[in-house]
Structures are given as C-alpha cells and as structure tokens.
Amino acid sequence: MTDNLMTTDLLTCLIHHRPAEEPRIEITHNIIAVLGEVVYLNCRYLGESEIQSSRWIRQINSKVKSKGLAGFLNGRAFKRHDFSEPASLTNLTVQLRVSSVDIEGQYICEFESEEGVFSENAFVTVVARPDVQILVNVGIINGTQYQSVSCSAVGGRPSPQISWSVNGLAASDYPFTVSVSNTAHSNGTFTQSSVLRFPTHLQDEDSVTCNVQHPTLPNPKLTTVRVETYVRPNVTITAEMVQKGGNDFWVVSCISSGGRPDTDISLALSTDEELQRENSTDPDTQRRSVFLPAAEYEGRNFTCVFDHPKFTHIESRAITLPSFYLSRVQLLGSRPRINTEGFQPTEMLELQEGQRGIVVGLEVVGNVPRYNVTCKKDDGPLPAGLELVGRSLTVQGPAEHQHSGLYECVFSHHHLKAMLQFNITVQPRVFQPVPPTVRVDLWTKGGLRVIECSAADAVPAANVSWLLPKGVSGESWFNFTSHNGSHSVTGVFLLPACSPWELTAVCVINHPAFEEPENRSITLPPCARPNINMNSSTEWKDGEKFTKVDCSADSVAPAAAISWHVGQSDNSIIGDLSEPEVQADGSVTARSSVHFLTSLYAGQNLTCMVKHPSSEASQKRTIHVPVPKAPLLRVSVARQQDSHLWLAVCDCRGDAVGTNLAWVLPENAKGQTSLHSEYEGRVLKARLTYQFPLALHEGQDLTCVYRFKHGITEKRSVHVPRYYISAVRVLNHTTPLRSRYGGEPVMHRLALQENHHNQKILLRVIGNVPQYDLNCQRSDGSSVYMEGLAMVLESELTEWDGDLYTCRASFYHHMAAVKIQVEVMCKDKQFVLVVISCVSSALAILFIFVVPLWVCCARNSKTKYKEQESLSALTTLMQEPGSPEVKKPVMMEKDSKEYDQLISYAIVIDVKSTV
Known about the structure:
Largest sheet: 6 strands, mixed
Number of domains: 8
CATH topology of the largest domain: Immunoglobulin-like
Radius of gyration: 66 Å
Structural class: mainly beta
CATH architecture of the largest domain: Sandwich
Protein name: Ig-like domain-containing protein
Helix content: under 10%
Keywords: Cell adhesion, Disulfide bond, Glycoprotein, Membrane, Repeat, Signal, Transmembrane, Transmembrane helix
CATH superfamily of the largest domain: Immunoglobulins
InterPro entries: CD80_C2-set (IPR013162), Ig-like_dom (IPR007110), Ig-like_dom_sf (IPR036179), Ig-like_fold (IPR013783), Ig_C1-set (IPR003597), Ig_sub (IPR003599), Nectin/Nectin-like (IPR051427)
Strand order of the largest sheet: 2-10-9-5-6-7
Distance between the termini: 107 Å
Family: Belongs to the nectin family.
Subcellular location: Membrane
C-alpha cells in the first residue's frame, strides 16, 4: 500500500511539474476581501482532460485541509457556509461573503480527472474599511481657552493612519499638539484615535481637516469640522448730546464691534461720583455708555480701556468734551459790524409794500448744539402774518406797513446768551394798472357745454361780457374774486351739449391796460351723428321660429331715442329699451331690441329709427325678415357591410328640421328608424335612417317626407334595386345529369385524374347581384378551399376519393346552387371508358332504329303486362352499357329521391355525352 501511495504522489508531482506545458488552471492568486462585503474567488480549468469533479478547499495548516467548500460532485453542485454555487464543473468561480476576518487564509482550487488532480492556490487577505468619527471639545486651561478636535478611525484592518491639516497645511507645529492612540479589537480590527489641541486665540482658521489613510480607501478620506476662532474687534469712543427730562446730557460711549469673544470694556472718569451707565443690547456690538450733565462736564477728558485676547496689549481711546460759546447773532448775508464801544449796532432791513415770499434769516455765531429763540417787535408780540420758523422770520402774504418797526431776537443756551436788534421799514408801492390774464375753456358736464372766460389777476378788475350768434340763448353768470390787491372775473355760459350746427361764442374783455377791448372766441363744432348698428338672430322654441333684432346707437350725450316700425306704414312695435351705457371716452350707448314670432312679419321690412339732437331728422336702419324656406332633402339607399340589413338614409338640411321628418313606408314595413340631428352654425342638419331586410322592399320606392308646420311639404324617393341569381354554371367539361322530367340538369358529373393535386373546378354565377358569397361543401358537410370562382382540391386524389360536391352562391335571400359528382379515374380506366363509349355509341345508333319498330309493336299489344314487360326490357337494355364503376354517392335524406331519378338515366346521358 505504501508503494501505491508513493506511485500516486510521484504521478501527481509529474503532472503538476511539466516544464514546458501551458497552465491548465486560470486563477487569481492574491485576493483582497473587504469585511462586510462579498468577494469573488476566480478559478477555471483550461485543459483538455474530462473533469469528473471539482471543489474549493481551505489549507488550515501544512497538514490539515478542510472539506470541500463549494464545487461539483457526481455532476451536482454543492456549497457550504458563505459560499455561492460555482458556475460549472470547469468554472469554479464563486462568491464569498466576508463575514469575519477568520476567512483570511489560503484556499485550494482542485479539478479531478482520470489523469489525476490539478490544483492551484489562492490567498485571501481580509481588510476592514474604518468608520471615521470626529468631535470638537472646548476647555479652559489657566484662563486660556483651548479646543480639542478628536478624530477616530474605528474598525479598520490593517490599522488606519490619521494626520491633520489646517487650510491645506499640515498641523504639526506650534501652536498645535497631536496625541495618537491605537486600540486592537477582538474581531481582528483596529481603531486609531488622534486628538488635535490648540489655543483658540492663536488659530485664525475656522476649520480643521482630519485625513484618514487606509488600503480600503482609494484616496485619503478628508473630514472637515468647524472650530471656534477669535476675531479682533474695532474699538472707539464717542460723545453725543441728548435731552432727557428737559436737560442736556453728554452720552460718552465705549464701543467694541465685530469682535469674538466679548471685549472687556472699562471707562475711566476724572471724578469719583456715581454716574448713570448704560450697556448695549446689540449682539454684534458692545457698548458701555455714561450719562453726564452737559453744563458740569464741559472740557472734561474721558478714556475707554479695551482688553481682548487678540490684543497684544491693552488698548485705550480718549475724548475731550467741548466747551460751548455763543458770541453773536446777525442777519443772514450781512457783515458783522461792531463799534468801538463793544456792542453790536442795530441793523436795517427795507421791504417793499406788497412784496411776497419774504424770509429774514438769522445767523448764529457759536458752537452750541441747540438754543432757544424769542423775538419781539417794539417790545411787544410779533405782528399778524409774521412768524418765527427755526432761525428765520417769515412774512405770510404781502408786506404791509404793519410789519415796520424795531425787532429784537434773543438766542440762549443755558447760561450763554446773544441778542440781535434790527429795524424793518416798508416802502409804499407806486400804483400801475395790471392787465388781466385772459383764458377761455370749454368742457361738457351734465348734458351741457360749459364755456368759461376768465380775466384773472388784474388791477383794477376787468369787465367781461358775451357776444353770441343771433337766435342762440343760454344761461350765464359772472364770479368776482380778489386776492392781495388783484382782482379776477369769471364768466360762465351754458349751451346744449349737442347741436346740429356750428356755433361761435365771443368773450369780450375791457380793461384800462387795453387800448381796445380784447376778444376771445371759441367755436363749437356740430355734434357727430350717432353710429348705428343693427343685427338679428333666430331661435326655435316649441317648433316655432323666433327672431330677435338688436339696434344700438353710439353718440355723444344725451343718449339717442330708439323706436321700431314694420312695413311701409307707420305700424310701430314696442321694443325693450336698456339703460344707456356711458363709455370711458364720455360717449353714450343706447340699446333697444325686439323679439317676435318670425312668421308674423315674414317677408316684411323692420326699421329701427334713431332720434338724436345731432340731426334734425331721424336716422333709419332696416332689416328684411325672410320668408321661411323649405329644407333641402337628399335620400339614398345602400347595404351595410357589417349587417344583413339595408340602410335607407334621408339627409335634411334647413331650419329646425328633425321632428318633422318621416319615411312613407308600406304597411308591412318592420324595419327600424332612427333620427339624429346636429347644429352647424344656425343651420340644423338631420339624418333619418331606416334599416330593413332587402326582401322586404326589394324593387320598391321608399319616400322621405318633410312636413313644414305652415303647410310646406317636401318629398324625395329612392328606388331599392331588385336582384336575382339564376344559376351557378360549371365551366369545366362535365356530363349533365337531368331528371326524368326534363328541364335543367340537377347534377353535373366530372372526372378528375388520379394522383394529381390542386385540381380546379371553375364556376360562374349567373345574375345581376353586385357581389355574392360562393362556397362549396362535400357530402359530409366539410368545406372546400376556394380561389375566387374556382374550387381547389389541394390533396392528391385516389380512385376512392370521388364525392358529391354542392356549390352555393348567395346574396342576402337570393341563392342558387349546383351539384357536382366528382369521380377520380386512372389513365387506364379512362381508356377503357373511351372504348366502352365507342361501343355504347354503336348501340345507341342501333337503338335509334329499334325504337320505332318497338313502338309499332307496342300499339298492337293490348295487355298492360306485356307493355310493362317491354318497358322493363328496354330499361334493362338502356342500363347494360352503363359504367360499372359509377358509385352511388353518399346523399343526405332530403336528396335521396332526386338521386333515385338520376340512376335510371345515368347511362343514357353518358352515352349522349360521348357521341
């Protein structure tokens, strides 16, 4: 047994170590598998040996191997654990689910054949993709804020590698510190944690990036996290004056804006008094303010001290409050004049009587933020029409003598005061006539034309009058107004808003400034005539036709009057008048309509008469009411493709057809009628149909009648054709078999050749039908294939395939049929029949001479028995030459009697056909 094992090992060694032989197994030797995913073990046999079994096994150690994990045994596939079934006996490619790191190791792919075992090794290395987690913590160490960013690559195999970057640069130097720790897990994976620590005030970037490198990652995984940063603030000191409780206060503010974190602010004062302080509520701005009485802190110095982590040293801002002064007040635009004694002299201001828009500006020399002003005239109050507005004295209205006098204005701010005295004189004006401003306007209001002529701002007042055409009168009035010594006169004249003639009105103005009277004329054009529109429409209601006519007139105000008249006489009808509509352009639209039974005024003219002040006579618009017309009828008859019924159609086009449409049918009519109608614009189209079987009205006339309600009747008739099918003819050479009573043949005998296929029997239908259905059946009722008018016997026929065929042509109830006895004969039999036919022909000639002789003898015989015996002998003689191969075809019971008649004379007809 040991020898056998050695022989086997030697053979195996020789098989696997052939030096120049192409590899028989295609395999992936080194495979990387990711934990939690699937991996493919690829192994295929490329040799020519016939493989009996194949499998995957695992090399546990140098001596121990596992059982088959997946493969083929006895022609059947098998798999174990996390393996999938292999593709085929020679393709052991399988899918392996990587559930743990324990699957790492060496696997052997084996193929077994009669020649031996072929194997190759593959090593599976298990790696695990790490999960990256990052966290930011903030802490205070010795009064300084530090931030710690922790980045962990959890569950990697092999151990991951972590590095840090800030703004694309490695974070490995000051102020950054990095601490790294590694942890090995029981499942064979590793976790590396790295902590990046730095003081917040030394790091200006708002994000840091954790870089994780691992074989399972095609590129380093970058995870960026936001971190807190400090921002250097902008600091300043301000001072502004406010009023609170009627007193002035300085508000000194220390302001820090845009910084992070908050700035430590303090305000240094040169006093130990407790002052009112105020802090800002703006989240982006820090403000610390103090309120100081303005009178007590003039000229004082104040300092704000700011401390922030981004400052290398404490910063300060200082401000000095100003000292106020009020030196003098002067008229705006005047030069300061101070005499040698040190007081300000009185200024002079000269105005003209009636002067308007006077503003006396007061200019203050000093730096006070605000002041109080009081002014008086001649030690009394300011005169009426003179007001103090801000720093100015404003004269309301024209300057008058009451505004002359000595004015004194005092400006004060706390203990500071300044005074100004000035004298105002008003010079009287020289009177001169002022010509008026003349204007003429025209507009329409309330159905009237308003002409307004005004002579405004004249000194003295002007005289206004009207000059009108002869025969024109209207209402007029004048208005007088005065303002600041000038006078205005307005004359108003009212005329009708619309006139058929052109009118000219002249306004005459007299004034001392004019050498001659001024004339202003305005021409009133005649009114435009109304734009008249007339339209009509019809409708049917309860079988009656009604007409509606609308008439509208677009005109200037007032609205036109509309009336209606019928015919040549003065017969008037009452219309429906709508409320006038006022359009956007001021025009007015009047509308009226009439609604009447059309037959009342058929054939007459309907007139719309429009009366308007723009024309002396009424305007007319006329419409003709037409006489009703009979509808247009059109009838037709046709057969239907998908029905056994015929269809008669009556199309009617006109006004309100439909219910007045009917078919005049015979008493025995049993068809179905239906009516369909639809509108096409104002025209109604109706279609009345009648379905009937052809046999019911064949050869008759069908009449469609429209009965108009007022006696008009329209008729249209259509003729239903009469059809027939007289016979079905066989065009092939046949032998007609007639009944013993003579007449048309009841059957045709036809001989076909044996062992021929696709033999055709040609037919023809005699009749006047436009088309027909032609079909043929065997005696057993089965159908025969048809090509047009030809019956085709597709299969090869034998002597025993003869049969009786019936061919029928039909068109509705018309029908004709022919019966064909088909016999199949070989060529030899046909030759014998020809010989027999010749003998039969000779016997037939003999029969021609025997029959007259027999007739003469029969007349002498008086015995019925002898006569019947002679006829029997004659019948026997006539049947003797018949063809013994003629077989009685299988017949239906209804055809049996007809066939019995054919038997007696079959031979005789055959003999005649061969002569």
